[in-house]
DNA sequence: CACCCCACCTGCGTGC
DNA sequence: TGCACGCAGGTGGGGT
């Protein structure tokens, strides 16, 4: 579930309440996450240590602890980090309960258990981050660099966007939204994009990620922030989950495509392969749609 | 190396 | 009502 914007919203929600706060202890649930440190490791490095800062890398959330240890979280598809002021409520699927000073409890709840919670002792490499690509919201990513990484490659644009080793943090929802905004077809071989395509793609990537953060993320089914609140960006989605509905720009029916076992949503009219040049300068809604599309 | 595919889980909506 | 099936925001390991 949580992509870059959702993890960033969680980070911003937790940071002011966790900074400077000491961990007391940890309790495990009956089931383990896909990757989860053994309880003795948490017990060794958490109790008595203060949280110095919270960082995000891609979809990973990192808590820097006093003394140099790092607590790393990944929320997988359905993970939540909930901070409760008092005794934690008896919620289902809570796999870790971190107790902090002042009576706070940080709960890791995850229905599908694809999430990760790992403690790294001081000085140890954060191995999960080694493969994480550059931050799309940082100047480290440039259109030129993306074009270079795509040169000579034939993989579909959608797969390229979802490849976290290239740009970190883009998931299935925002990939579709970004390609729609940039008017690029999800199956387009990445090596075929022009420099202008890459500039447009990066510009919309940043715009959409920032807008989603400002809206508190996207809640489809499960996502809640650290206060237990939903996001609002689902109201701004233009293609994701809108299979069969009318494109908001041209009226054509949004289509669903299966790429690598995952759904991609796109407008067959606005995102026609190779049609970009011919459309420059034309207003929205002026693509050559098949006819029964300005409807509903 | 580049790329594909499935496994890992539970829950929910749909259609028969 | 019940049941089978498909699908869901993520990685990561193994195969071609």
Indicate the topology.
Layout: H1 4-18, E1 23-28, E2 35-36, H2 39-45, E3 51-57, E4 60-65, E5 70-74, E6 79-84, E7 94-100, E8 105-110, E9 116-120, H3 143-150, H4 157-162, H5 172-181, H6 195-214, E10 255-259, E11 262-266, H7 276-279
Helix pairs in contact: 1-6, 3-6, 5-6
This protein binds a DNA duplex (16 and 16 nucleotides) through α5.
Notes on the protein architecture:
The protein contains seven helices and eleven strands. It is of the alpha+beta class and 296 residues long. The protein folds into two domains: 4-129, MutM-like, N-terminal (N-terminal domain of MutM-like DNA repair proteins), CATH 3.20.190; 143-279, Helicase, Ruva Protein, domain 3. Strands 2-9-5-4-3 form a five-stranded mixed beta sheet, covered by helices on one side. It has a four-stranded antiparallel beta sheet with strand order 1-7-8-6, covered by helices on one side. The chain has a two-stranded antiparallel ribbon with strand order 10-11. Helix 1 packs across helix 6 (195-214), helix 3 (143-150) crosses helix 6 (195-214) and helix 5 (172-181) crosses helix 6. The model is unreliable at 276-285 and 289-296 (pLDDT under 50). The protein binds a DNA duplex (16 and 16 nucleotides) through residues 1-3, 6, 31, 34-35, 59, 74-79, 93, 110-116, 128, 131, 153-155, 159, 164, 171-174, 218, 220-223, 240, 260-263.
